[in-house]
Each structure stands twice: as structure tokens, then as C-alpha cells.
Amino acid sequence: MRALKTIALLALPVVLLFGCQSTPEQPAAGKAPELAKPKTEAPATAKPDTGAGAGAATAIDASKGAKADAGATDKSAAPGALKNTIYFDFDRFDIKPEFREAVLAHAAFLTKNPNATVKIEGHCDERGTREYNIALGDRRATAVRQLLKLQGVADKQIATISFGEERPVALGHDEDSWWQNRRAVFAYR
Amino acid sequence: MTTALFYRFAVMVLMLMGLPAAQAALTIEITEGVEGALPIAIVPFASEGADALVGGDLTTVVAADLQRSGRFKVLPQTDLVARPTEPSKVNFQDWRLLGQDNLLIGSVKATPQGYEVRFFLFDVLKAQQIKAFSLPAQAATLRVTAHKISDMVYEALIGEPGAFSTRVAYVTKPQKGGASVHTLWIADADGYSARDVLNSPTEIMSPAWSPDGAKLAYARFENDHFVLYVQDVATGTREIVANALGHNGAPAWSPDGSKLALAMQHKRHPGDPGNFDIYILDLRSKALTRFTEHWAVETHPAWSPDGNYLVFTSDRSGRPQIYRKALTGGKEERLTFEGAENDRASFSPNGKMLAMIHANSGEYRVAVFDLETGQLRVLTDSSLDESPSFAPNGSMIIYATTFKNAKILAAVSVDGRVKQRLSQEGRVLDPAWSPLLRTSQ
Amino acid sequence: MSNVKENVIPFTLSVLMHIAIGVLFVISLEFGQKTLSPSQPEVNVIEAVTVDESKIQYEMDKLKKAEQRKKDEEDRRQRDLESDAQRAKRLRETEEQHIAELKKKKKVETELAAKEQEHIKKLKKDSEELAQKNKQEQQKVDKLETKRKMEEEQAADRARQDALKKKQDSERAAKDKEARKVVGEFKSQITAKVESVWIRPTNFAPGTECTVSVKLIPTGDVVDSKLSHCSGDEVFSRSVEAAVQKASPLPVPKDDPDAFNLMREINFVFKPQ
Predict the structure, then answer these.
(1) Residue B259 Cα, gap to closest chain A Cα (Å)
(2) Could you tell me what percent of chain A has a pLDDT over 70?
(3) Domain boundaries defined on chain C
(4) CB contact under 8 A, C203 and B159
(5) What is the torsional sign of CA B73, B78, B84, B85?
(6) What are the boundaries of each domain within chain A?
(7) At a CB cut-off of 8 Å and minimum separation 6, what does B220 contact?
(8) Mutation target among B277, B278, B299 for the A interface, most CBs of A within 10 A
(9) Which CATH fold topology does A2-188 show?
(10) B65 at the A interface (CB within 8 A)?
(11) Are residues B302 and B410 in the same domain?
(12) Is any Cβ of chain B less than 8 angstroms from the Cβ of A74?
């Protein structure tokens, strides 16, 4: 068991190196392989991120996301492969229970690799003003930061950046696209 | 003998009581009217010269201007019963029968310097000339001339200055398949004659005109955050005026042009979560004063025309709502209580109303809020409206909206009756209406 | 006569001319007469005839007999004439007698007639006097009657006039009331119509007030519109004048001149709140 964990942890950087990203200025290009997966896997059956009844739905979401990730990143054979994107409810920046684990996974990695730094991007859907969404995105990124810090990650390892509604991954004008844009992204250099 | 007497008596009696009060006039008080558009007929100006279309082109722009303002109902050209081009040819009865209150006619004459445009504005009901004017024009700036005419007609008939010679600044984002560049544009108030004043690989946000119309303040994304710039419109030179570690945005000029209110996220160090609050920056001394200090998000400040108040957005109640606070300090008073969200308030030029985005049942719409009565009135029926900006004469509001998967410019008259789309496609954001410009720029 | 004096010469000429014409006329007549009796054209027809002696003697005898006969006839005629004359004389005498008798009779009759005339006269006089008396009586009665009638009529008149006056008063009052009620109804119609066409300016100072005075004709058309007491600016004043024009023709009562008379002139006071 222990050995498996060690292998997984060692494999992590490799996996991450491959899935790596670009500067925030060209998010789409760099993130394409990673981000494309949730998008293609996310069919019309994606559940809208409403406050009520989100529990069961998001569980399925999480599993979907996980499946997708597992399928693409064949670099890692580890079951708990890191998810780089977590999603939020409309107008909310609290981290939902189903994504807690994903964040903790990153926290674990970062604590184990004190020289590693991560940039947390906060994003929003198009509703609301651009300026307000900068603040909301910032709050989402900050919420992730807080959780990471709680897990022992050092402040200087975490940078946050808010893109507000400026860098959507889905361009539709309905919940099918909106939920995908309400996200925080772990961007490792 | 008796009968004669009788008749005489009767006549006398009748005379005494038969006089009705026909000489006193009846008084009727009229207290209400209708908020209506003034019916006006515009006859294509005569073209005296080589270009046979120039007169018609001119009046097409004037007609579009007046119609767009919502204050006029321009008679369609197909309904014109006559096409007089000089006062002696005008038969007022024609226009009266068509239900027109006013008539605009004119001519464009070619001169060695370009053109000479003459127009005559009539009150059809009184059969009187209201205004006659003559002005020089150039082929290249014919639209400018048309807008000047629209301004003069508007002012003569409405009693307020027209806003047709004003400008609009707005931002476009890269489109799929197009160049990956963000651009800040300045166009005529009707959306025509756009020119780019900044091209950027990264986002541009919240342009705001200085009160003299000479400068634009805006936020631009660089080095992982937005910084605030002030750029000279004529020369293009620019400088950074706010560069806090966190966010710098939502600039609003004070009425005297000496200060900027802005939304700033002050971070003491990169790890500091920082808070979004309203600050005031003195552009001369560069002194920065904190205006709000609240754990909630405060953004989108707007300066009252009398310089005494700022309104701003705060989500301290859970969702964004509009608050007001005096420059001298004091209570931060909540103004909006209707709907799920109210954001991005801006003052009307007379300081009596706010334009804002009002969210209710998932729809984001342009609304006006009466500061005296607290009444909110939704003006549009679209669903993803953004950044409403008042015309400098208070008659219309320009805004960005989503239409058929594009983000376009639109305008709505302040009473909500006339709506117009000013652009057709692309991704147009953050329109800002210039103040009344005294000189052509 | 003055005419003659003024126009002596023409008059004289006229008379002279008339005389001349008259003379000519007479002369012409004479001439005419003279010429009118033309001499008979003598037709001398000469026929040769042979003379016979026996025939002459026969003729002469015939002539003698004829003469004798004539003489006898003459005598006979003389004798007839005499007897005629005598008869006539006898007739005349009888007639004279007759006439004398008639005269006598007439005289008697005349006397009788005269007597009768007198009698009749007397009777007439009597009856006249009686009639006169009656007449006077009658007159007295008539007078009284007339007086009474007059008084009666006057009373009736007065009563009638009072009643008429009352009736007219109440009719007039009712008409007035009705007229005012009608005016009231139309007043609100007019107000509504003007308010529906007044495009109210948006930027007027509070308390702005403008009055437009109009005159109407029975069709409701505004024929005379005048702006008075306007505290608004030019745009405001133009808008109220336009409103009145556009509201024309105003709804007015047709076939009700009493009501219409109360609304011939209207002062519209535009006082936006």
C-alpha cells in the first residue's frame, strides 16, 4: 500500500509536467488537452448547478470528471489523479464537498513539494458585470487558497489570479455553458 | 288690443330671462399629456451639384438620429406627399392632413470649398418657420454635418441640447477565427465612423470619458491583474494611474475632472486576499483616499453630477445592490431593494435618475431608478444586458446586449419606448457615452 | 300750371301743332268728301228704237188713265188724311181727358202718399227713439260687459303670464341645468381629447402654466386660438398651441344651441403636475 502511494506520488510530477500549462495570457491553447475532456464528456445530461438538489447531481459530475481525467491522463495510473478544475454554484465561492478532495489532493502535493508553486485561477460565467465578476473570481481563487493553507501549504507557494468572466471555456448563453465557466483552475508552471 | 299688449309683455319677459351667459368663457384645466414622439416629416434635401445623392444621404442620417432619440416619430419617406425643397413650395395643409407637427426641408449646394447646406424647420400647425440655418460641409464629414443639423432640430423642438454629435467608446473582444486582439474604439453616437484607439493582446475593461471629452480612463489586464490607464483621445498617449497589487478598475471621473473614483483591491502582499473597496484618486497629486471599508465587495462607483455623492455597488447584503454615500462621509445608504441584483449604476446628466442593470428571475436588464421616488423601471426586454450609459442630454441610454449569440451595441430611449440595435455582430462591450462635445474631435 | 309756365314755348308749339294737324285733318276730310263723291261715270248707251203711232196713242191713254187714277188716289188720300186727322183729334181729346183724370188721381195719391210718409216718418222717429234708447241701454250693458270682460281678461292675462313666466322660468332653469350638465359632459370629453394629443415637454419648470383661449364654431372646429399668460418656454408654448390645434374639432353638443352657447369660448389652462 505504502509503496503504491509512493509510486503514485512520484508519478505525479511526471503527469503534471505533461499536462502542463502556459501563461495565463494564452489559457485556451495550453489548457486545451485538459479542459477539452470535461467539455466533451459533459453532455446534454450535465446537471445545472442550482443550489437545490445539487447533492446527487454533483456526485455524478464528480465521477464524470474523474472518469474523464482517468481516461486521458494515461501518464498516471494512480486512481486518485489530480483534478485541475473544480466548479462552483452560481454566485457562490464556497468549495463544494465533492470538490474538497480534489483540492486536498493538490494540497498534499504542494506540502510534499515545498518548491512547487501553483497559480489558482478564479473564473465566472457571463452573468453579472465584468468588474463584479473579477471580484467573484478572486473570491473563488481565494477560497481555494484558504483551503490549501489550512492543509499546510505555504502562502508563497500559492498565487491567485482572477479572470472574472473574461476567459470562458464554453460560449453558450445558458446553464449548459455557464456551469463549465464557474470554475477554479490549478495552474502549475 | 289685449292680445297686442300680451305679446309685448311676453317679449319683454322673454328678453329679460332669455339672455344666456354666452359671453363668459368656459375654463378647462389640462394637467396631463402624453409622453409621445413629435411627428415630424423630413423631406430629402435637394442636391444641387454633381452628387445627386448627397441631399438624401444627409437627411437619412438626420432622420435616423431623430427617430433613435425616441422623441420624434419620423414620417417614412414613402408617405411623403410632396417634396418641397424651399419654403415657398411648402403647402402646410398637406402636412397637417398627414398629422405632422413639424417639417424639415433643405438643400445641399456644391461650392468650390465643398458644400453649402441650408435647412428650414417649420411648425406645421401654426404654419410658421421655426428655424432656418445654413452651414458649410465637406463630403468627408457629411455625417458630422448631419449630426449638427439633428442637434439643432432637437434643441429647437425639445428645448434641450441634442446629443447626436457625441461619441461612444466601447471595447471589442477577439472573435472566433478573427485576430486575437482586444480593441478600444471610439465611434459616433450612432455607431458609425469607428476608429481604434488601443489594440491589446489582453483584456480592456470599463472605459470612462473625462468630463471634457479629451481623455479616456480604462482598465487593462497585464501581469496577472488589471491596471488603470488614462489615455489622451487625440494623441493616444497614456499613463498608468493605479497599479495596486490586486485589482484596479471601474474608473469614474469627478465632474470637475480632477479625480477618479475606482474599485481597488489593495493587497499588502501577494498572499493577502485583499478587499475590493472604493477609493478616490487625485489625478494631480496622485493621493489615494479610501472611500469604503467593508469586507464585502464594493465596485462600480459613479459620481453625482453635483459632485456631492458617490453611488456604488456592494454585495454586503448577499447579492450586488446599489448604495449611496456622500463625499463628505457618513452613512452608506442602500438604494435598491427590488429584484435579485442591481449593479453598475450611473447618473443621468440631471442627477435625478440612475441607469443600472437589474436582475430578476435570471434576466439582466437595463433599468432606470428615480432617486426621488425610489421607483425602478425596467426599459428592455432582452436578457443579458450590460453597462448602461446615459446620453449626455439624458434622453437615451446606450448599452451592450446579447443578440443571436453576438454581443452588440443597443440604445433605448429613457422612457423605454424606442429601442435600437446599433451594431449587428461581434463582441461589443462596455459602451461609454461621451459628454457633449463642444469641438469636433 | 307751373309746368306750362316753365315750358311756355313748348306748350305753345304743341298747341299750334295740334291746331295745324286738326285743320289739316278737316281739310283732308273735306277733300276726302269731295273726292269721295266721285261723279258717276255716265254711261251713255244709245239704243236705236223704231217709233209706232198706235203705240204712242196707247201710251198716251195709259198716261191719262194713270194721271186720273193718281188724282183719284190723291183725293182719296186727302179724305183719309182728314178722317185720320179727325180721329186723331178725337183720340187726343180722350187722352186729354184721361190724362186729366190721371192727374186728379195722382194728386189724391200724392196727398195720401204724403200723409203716409208723414205717418211712416213719425213711426220711424218713434222707433228710432226707441232704438236709440235701446242702444243706449245696450251700450251701458256692453260697457259694463266690456269692462267686466276686460277685467276678466286682464286677470286671465296676468294669470296666464304668471303661469307662462313660471313655466318659462322653470323651463329656462331646466334648460340651463340641462345645458350645463351637457357642457359638463362635453367638458370632460374635451379635456380627454386635448390630453390625448398634448405631447407634453419633459423639461419644464414646476408650476409652469399656459393659457390658450379658443373660439369654437358649432362643428366644434377651433377657429381662433390665442396664447395668453404663458410662463413656459417656447417649446412648452408651442406644444400647448399644437395640442389645441390637433384636438380640433372638439367634441361639442350638436342640436343643442343652449349648451353650445355656453362653450363657444374656452380657456384651456395647461397646468402640468
Answers:
(1) 20
(2) 57
(3) 182-270
(4) yes
(5) positive
(6) 2-188
(7) B198, B200, B202, B203, B204, B205, B226, B227, B229
(8) B299
(9) 60s Ribosomal Protein L30; Chain: A; (3.30.1330)
(10) no
(11) yes
(12) no
A101 CB contacts (<8 Å, ≥6 apart)? A80
What size, in residues, is chain A? 189
Domain that holds residue B329: 167-433
Secondary structure letter of residue C208 according to DSSP: -
Q: Which chains form contacts with chain B, at 3 or more CB pairs under 8 Å?
A: A, C
Same domain, B69 and B189: no
ipTM score of complex? 0.86
Render pLDDT for B296-316 as a digit per residue (tens, 0 to 9). 999 999 999 999 999 999 999
Does C have 3 or more CB contacts under 8 Å with A? Answer: no
Is residue B334 assigned to a domain? Answer: yes
Task: Specify whether B178 is located in the same domain as B151.
Answer: no
B126, B141, B158: which is the final residue of a domain?
A: B158
Which tens digit of pLDDT belongs to each residue from C173-185? Answer: 887 888 888 888 8
pLDDT band with cut points at 50, 70 and 90 for residue A58? very low
- A and B touching (3 or more beta-carbon pairs closer than 8 Å): yes
Residue with the three cell numbers 425616441: B70
φ and ψ at residue A92, rounded to 5 degrees: -115, 150
Average pLDDT over residues A16-24: 43
Domain boundary among B134, B158, B182: B158
pLDDT tens-digit map of B192-247: 889 999 999 999 999 999 999 999 999 999 999 999 999 999 999 999 999 999 99
Position B5 in a domain: no
Closest CA to C206 of C134, C110, C273: C273
Whether B355 and B374 map to the same domain: the answer is yes
**CA-based nearest distance A66→chain B, Å:** 29
Q: Residues B48, C207: contact at Cβ < 8 Å? A: no
Task: Taking residues A163-171, report their average pLDDT.
Answer: 95
E-strand ranges in chain C read: 210-216, 222-230, 265-270
Between the alpha carbon of residue B358 and those of residues B251, B341, B355, C169, the distances in Å are 21, 6, 9, 67
Which chains border A (3 or more CB–CB pairs < 8 Å)? B
Q: What's the CATH code of the domain at B338?
A: 2.120.10.30
Q: Does C203 touch chain B (CB under 8 A)?
A: yes
The verdict on a CB contact (< 8 Å) between A159 and B270 is yes
Q: Is residue B24 part of a domain?
A: no
Tell me how far apart the alpha carbons of residues B49 and C87 are, in angstroms, rounded to a whole number: 144
Q: Which residues of C touch B25 (CB under 8 A)?
A: 213, 265-267
Task: Give the three-state DSSP class for B87.
Answer: helix
| C182-270 CATH fold | 3.30.1150
Report CA torsion sign: C136, C137, C141, C147.
positive
Looking at A21-30, A168-177, B363-372, C60-69, which range is the least confident one?
A: A21-30
Q: Closest chain C residue to B38 measured between Cα atoms?
A: C199
Q: What is the pTM of this model?
A: 0.67
Task: Tell me if residue C252 falls in helix, strand or coil.
Answer: coil
What tens digit of pLDDT does each residue of C210-228 get? 999 999 999 999 998 999 8
**Amino acid identity, position C181:** K
Q: What cell does C177 get?
A: 341645468
Q: What pLDDT was estimated at residue C48? A: 57
Q: What is the pLDDT of residue A44?
A: 36
